[in-house]
């Protein structure tokens, strides 16, 4: 198939550029669709700022509290705002429903105008990005569960169920608000508590050390 790697299309990874990994699998208890972007060298100021603003959008939408039966299209702009602030944008949907033993992209959940309103129990991706043709691409994609918020009236929020650290090398902390940093720290704590013991159980010491380093406050 055209998607298979070949010696003709393969190229060597280097520490001088960004990499976008769109990963996923279908398991007995669910489907994963997780994208991370990394840079193993010295990112440019634009790369770092664009990545940080994509992350800010991801956090802002993930921690949003909104009324029940809100349409996804109503809240989508929260994922874009940090990019819009400096005149940047992305040209794809902010997220799609995720099936269990069905489609990775599953209708009718999502953030477009023709998707159904969000309800507790739905799984959606949250995936803002930024792309510069011929230069680099950034996307951060998490799977999120729509859950009831801890509010007096029945409101909703998201619980991110993907437990994968973001690339510290690309985050400009000076752009983040105290609330965004608090969100990141509590997310990292969840990753440590839920993934760390499993890596130890499997005796994956190198992966465990990487996880500890990648989830430092």
Automatic annotation (TrEMBL):
<keyword id="KW-0378">Hydrolase</keyword>
<dbReference type="GO" id="GO:0004177">
    <property type="term" value="F:aminopeptidase activity"/>
</dbReference>
<dbReference type="InterPro" id="IPR036005">
    <property type="entry name" value="Creatinase/aminopeptidase-like"/>
</dbReference>
<dbReference type="InterPro" id="IPR000994">
    <property type="entry name" value="Pept_M24"/>
</dbReference>
<comment type="similarity">
    <text>Belongs to the peptidase M24B family.</text>
</comment>
<dbReference type="InterPro" id="IPR050422">
    <property type="entry name" value="X-Pro_aminopeptidase_P"/>
</dbReference>
<dbReference type="Pfam" id="PF16188">
    <property type="entry name" value="Peptidase_M24_C"/>
</dbReference>
<feature type="domain" description="Peptidase M24">
    <location>
        <begin position="9"/>
        <end position="147"/>
    </location>
</feature>
<protein>
    <submittedName>
        <fullName>XPP2 aminopeptidase</fullName>
    </submittedName>
</protein>
<keyword id="KW-0645">Protease</keyword>
<dbReference type="InterPro" id="IPR032416">
    <property type="entry name" value="Peptidase_M24_C"/>
</dbReference>
<dbReference type="Pfam" id="PF00557">
    <property type="entry name" value="Peptidase_M24"/>
</dbReference>
<keyword id="KW-0031">Aminopeptidase</keyword>
<feature type="domain" description="Peptidase M24 C-terminal">
    <location>
        <begin position="154"/>
        <end position="217"/>
    </location>
</feature>
């Amino acid at each position: 198939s055209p998607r298979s790697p070949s010696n003709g299309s393969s190229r060597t990874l280097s520490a001088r550029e960004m990499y976008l990994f769109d990963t996923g699998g279908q398991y007995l208890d669910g489907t994963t669709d997780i994208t991370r972007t990394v840079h193993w060298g010295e990112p440019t100021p634009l790369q770092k700022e664009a990545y940080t603003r994509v992350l800010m959008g991801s956090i802002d939408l993930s921690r949003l509290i909104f009324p029940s039966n809100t349409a996804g299209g109503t809240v989508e702009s929260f994922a874009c705002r940090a990019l819009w602030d400096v005149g940047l944008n992305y040209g794809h949907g902010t997220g799609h429903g995720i099936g269990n033993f069905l489609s990775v992209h599953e209708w009718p959940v999502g953030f477009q105008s023709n998707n159904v309103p969000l309800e507790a129990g739905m799984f959606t991706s949250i995936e803002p990005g930024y792309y510069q043709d011929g230069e680099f691409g950034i996307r951060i994609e998490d799977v999120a569960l729509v859950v009831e918020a801890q509010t007096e009236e029945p409101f909703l929020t998201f619980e991110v169920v993907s437990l994968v650290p973001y690339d510290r090398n690309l985050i400009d902390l000076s752009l983040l608000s105290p609330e965004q940093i608090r969100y990141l720290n509590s997310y990292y704590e969840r990753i440590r508590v839920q993934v760390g013991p499993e890596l130890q159980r499997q005796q994956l010491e190198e992966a465990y050390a990487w996880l500890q380093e990648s989830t430092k406050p």
